[in-house]
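Worked example 3 (structure in, sequence out).
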């Protein structure tokens, strides 16, 4: 991966920091490269256990640019996993840096850039979110077909014009539908957070075309496209968004819904990842 911005100081160049992180991962795992990266959001933690054999677990604090999880229910480690018998390796991040943590956009997309520097051709971005469709009960997985970046920020710096027309790779969504034809698709809107969206904000997002609302993923997807990665996005509806339901919102509700759906979602995504690896290596 090469930087598209001319930053003079290697100590602050986000692409150099990503390459340094990838070098540590390669050394610790003994794998010259990884093939598919996964960012596991709320409710997706069991996916890593179902993908295949974990070869190495690395504490985030041991890798440049990474930090411990700031959200309850997330893991502060990354894993190198053999994807079944495909001969491919998955780099699985048990947590992400959220924009609301105040560390800046570079920190938010550092995992994505590290995945690209580690050799990955594909990244799977998952999250727990609020749903605008009343038929999506808590525990429903939904493929992301497009997004609204409502953070007023971008990970792309300088006059680098990135085409995001087909941001979420159509072929990867096709593979997911082959695994589970019942999967719905929707548009994901990222708000800054950490406060949950108001009913008026949810209504606004719906008018703009959103089906899902949350506090992650959109900035990561833009960075992934800049890095040349294929992107699959999957949301787990953990609750109906504010104003869609008359129930109050809580993070415990998100955790509970994720735990209840963990087995189904983990099995689904593990099979999707296996098929992606098979197709890419064919």
């Amino acid at each position: 991966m090469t930087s598209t911005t001319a930053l003079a100081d290697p100590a602050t160049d986000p692409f150099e920091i990503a390459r340094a992180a990838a070098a540590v991962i390669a050394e610790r795992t003994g794998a010259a490269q990884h093939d598919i990266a996964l960012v596991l959001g709320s409710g997706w933690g069991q996916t890593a256990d179902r993908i295949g054999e974990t070869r190495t677990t690395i504490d985030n604090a041991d890798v440049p640019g990474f930090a411990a999880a700031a959200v309850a229910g997330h893991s502060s480690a990354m894993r190198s996993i053999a994807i079944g018998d495909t001969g491919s390796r998955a780099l699985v991040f048990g947590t992400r840096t959220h924009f609301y943590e105040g560390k800046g956009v570079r920190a938010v997309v550092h995992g994505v850039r590290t995945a690209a520097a580690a050799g990955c051709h594909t990244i799977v971005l998952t999250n727990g979110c609020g749903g605008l469709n009343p038929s999506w009960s808590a525990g429903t997985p939904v493929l992301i077909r497009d997004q609204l970046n409502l953070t007023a920020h971008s990970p792309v710096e300088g006059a680098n014009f990135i085409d995001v027309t087909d941001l979420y790779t159509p072929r990867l969504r096709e593979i997911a539908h082959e695994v589970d034809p019942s999967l719905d698709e929707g548009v994901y809107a990222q708000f800054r957070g950490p406060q949950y969206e108001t009913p008026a904000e949810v209504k606004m997002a719906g008018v703009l075309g959103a089906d899902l609302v949350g506090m992650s993923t959109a900035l990561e997807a833009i960075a992934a496209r800049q890095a040349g990665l294929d992107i699959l996005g999957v949301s787990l509806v953990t609750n109906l968004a504010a104003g869609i339901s008359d129930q109050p919102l809580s993070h415990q509700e998100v955790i509970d819904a994720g735990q209840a759906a963990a087995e189904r979602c983990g099995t689904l995504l593990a099979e999707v990842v296996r098929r992606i690896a098979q197709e890419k290596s064919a």
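Notes: The chain has a mean pLDDT of 90. The beta strands are 36-39, 52-59, 77-83, 89-93, 122-131, 140-149, 184-190, 212-214, 230-240.
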